[in-house]
Specification:
There is one protein chain. The protein is an alpha+beta fold and 495 residues long. It has three domains: 117 residues, Serine Threonine Protein Phosphatase 5, Tetratricopeptide repeat; 71 residues; 232 residues, Serine Threonine Protein Phosphatase 5, Tetratricopeptide repeat (Alpha Horseshoe). The protein has 23 helices and four strands. Helix 17 runs antiparallel to helix 18 and helix 22 runs antiparallel to helix 23. The N terminus is likely disordered.
């Protein structure tokens, strides 16, 4: 009797289990029919029932995610995709594509919501919700962190902004370092990139990039994909804007731009904190902040040697910390591997601040060797010769400074030939000529100064003071007096 009862019980349990599983399968089949009719809402109800009754239903989970995509319920996909991929093993490839496409939809949703009204708190909140879901869905996508950083920053949540920028840096630093090690940097021409890599690409093609396109260079032996965008100014040539190293073909065919913004924002945050601490006399804490800023600034300058903030901040930090020798080691190391005009200029500025004028001039000369008409390098080398003469005179080291001032004048003259409207160049030339006793040359600059009266430079009191001095030397006392009055009026207006 017991045996009969037990057999019957097992039979009932088995029947119940079959009915239970069969019910889930039936719901899946019904959902398919509703999907054929494009009734995705009813299909969603059937599929939710199917995976609730049978949480391991392979096809049920796949169709559930597919149906959510058709319903554009991307937040729900973000919440359920990992579970679906756990149970729907026969559809992992398709689900992975849905996962990536959903990330795109969430990212673009955040991007669109924010850019429609960047100053709106409601728009910022909506965009952040989209992007936080996108971040959870594909945490390896650096673009999400940068846009989140931008929005948190603009909303006033600086800490959250920095947190996301740091997360982006952690994501991209290895890839960026790999590109730099190959000699790549943003804004390179295609020819410069080929020289850095060591030859023409095995393959190149144009790929879509947002509303525009990118030129893609492929180097299979290095698993390198290098991307170029058209410059926004004439002659509109292709300029290097990003790369992927060690990428698969599927990844490489999707252009990824190098972004220096997070490096600049985070480095500036450390830099400003360091300056504030230094102003309050806390050198130890300031040094800790500066030490965090410097590696980011160095990477920033390697990625984009034209970055003006890095070029100014690096010498300033090392000078404030009195670490000129340490800075020399860093610059020498980087420049030995990747000579760069902008970094030579930055190095020269550091050396000039340290009053190592000979070494500074050498650095500027190397910058000019790479670009003879570079205005920044011409001005800086002229200033270095002039400051060298003044420093030696002050220290009583020499009584004759003609050679240094002649070289200073020579470079200022070259710069003046390139840019006639630079009042600072004219002022330095006038001063040099006076010290050298070249009165005729000094007076010849009057016409050059007068030609600037109709420019914005004439809104400066310094401009009128220099013109007044030149008029006085030319014995034009009335003109000199009028120029001094103009300078005084401008000083009063700007108080």
């Amino acid at each position: 009797m017991k045996t009969t009862y037990r057999t019957l019980l097992y039979s009932l349990l088995l029947t119940f289990a079959v009915q239970f599983v069969g019910c889930g399968a039936a719901d899946v089949q019904s959902a398919k029919l509703y999907r054929q009719r494009r009734d995705y809402t009813t299909a969603d109800k059937m599929l939710q029932k199917a995976i609730t009754e049978d949480p391991t239903n392979d096809e049920g989970w796949f169709l559930y995610i597919e149906n959510l995509y058709d319903l554009k319920q991307f937040e729900k996909i973000a919440a359920n995709i990992d579970t679906a991929m756990l149970y729907s093993t026969t559809h992992r490839g398709e689900l992975q594509q849905y996962k990536h496409n959903t990330w795109i939809q969430l990212y673009m949703g955040g991007y669109g919501a924010y850019n429609a009204n960047p100053d709106s708190k409601e728009a910022q909140k909506t965009a952040i919700a989209y992007l936080e879901d996108a971040r959870k869905l594909e945490p390896e996508q650096p673009q999400t962190y940068e846009l989140l950083g931008n929005i948190y920053y603009s909303s006033g949540d600086t800490a959250k902004g920095i947190e996301n920028y740091v997360a982006e840096i952690n994501q991209v630093s290895a890839s960026y370092d790999q590109g730099v090690s190959l000699g790549l940097m943003v804004k390179m021409t295609t020819e410069s990139a080929e020289r850095a890599i060591g030859g023409a690409p095995a393959r190149k093609f144009v790929a879509p990039l947002g509303n525009d396109s990118a030129l893609v260079y492929v180097y299979p032996s290095k698993q390198a994909y290098i991307y170029f965008e058209k410059a926004t100014k004439p002659p509109y040539a292709w300029q290097l804007s990003g790369w992927r190293i060690g990428a698969t073909e599927a990844e490489g065919n999707q252009p990824l731009m190098v972004s220096t913004a997070p490096y600049e924002v985070v480095a500036n945050d450390y830099y400003q904190k360091g300056l504030a601490l230094l102003a309050h006399g806390n050198k130890s804490a300031a040094t800790a902040q500066f030490d965090k800023a410097v590696p980011l600034l160095m990477t920033l300058q390697q990625l984009d040697p034209t970055d003006e903030f890095a070029a100014q901040a690096i010498p300033d930090i090392y000078t404030r910390l009195e670490r000129t020798d340490k800075a020399k080691q860093e610059y020498d190391r980087i420049l030995a591997e990747h000579p760069s005009r902008a970094m030579y200029i930055s190095y020269g500025t550091l050396l000039m601040k340290a009053q190592d004028y000979s070494a500074a001039i050498n650095a500027y000369e190397k910058a000019l060797a790479l670009k003879p008409d570079d205005e920044a390098a011409l001005f800086d080398i002229a200033a270095a010769y002039k400051n060298w003469a003044a420093a030696d005179q002050k220290a009583g080291k020499k009584t004759e400074y003609k050679n240094e001032l002649d070289k200073s004048s020579e470079y200022f003259e070259k710069l003046h030939a390139i840019n006639k409207n630079d009042a600072a160049v004219l002022e330095n030339l006038a001063e040099n000529y006076d010290i050298l006793g070249k009165k005729d040359k000094s007076l010849s600059l009057i016409a050059e100064f007068e030609a600037l009266k109709s420019t914005d430079i004439a809104n400066s009191a310094d401009y009128w003071e220099w013109l007044a001095k030149l008029y006085a030397r030319a014995n034009r006392s009335e003109d000199s007096s009028a120029a001094y009055k103009k300078a005084d009026a401008l000083k009063q207006a700007h108080k």
